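Hello Y.,

Per our agreement to keep a running log of every chain we model this quarter, I'm adding this entry. I've kept the format consistent with earlier entries: sequence first, then predicted structure.
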Amino acid sequence: SNSLLECLVFGRRAALAALADGPAQQATWAVAPLPAGAPCPPPATRMPRCASAGFGPRLDRDLGVERDASRLARLVGDLPGPDSHGCPADHLIATLATRAALLRTESRGAHYRVDAPTTQPAWQGRILWRRETPPHFEEVPVC
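Predicted structure for the entry above:
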């Protein structure tokens, strides 16, 4: 999802449903590489400083509705890598959301990239990112 509120509202419901499902109900996705021109996600270079009390406003400013590549890249540098073990769940969520926003070089829905203001048809879909795997893309056809 591109919506943090949606993530909060439906995350618990999805987790409980996934735990209740048997192997036959396990979700599968038809994935492909990211659309052409997607920037390579930068490696994590330092440990997070997000434990400080002032980090929430920074997420609002740099990962909020209005974004740009330079602020997202700086934020990526201050967050743990997506494969970090032992980091708090909220840090991992911020990491994946920031990296996905940096990869998606377009504006879509309520998420506006100042440096990429138009919607690109190649990005009609979802970025799927699992621990210890590179991001993939699931195209969602227009109905």
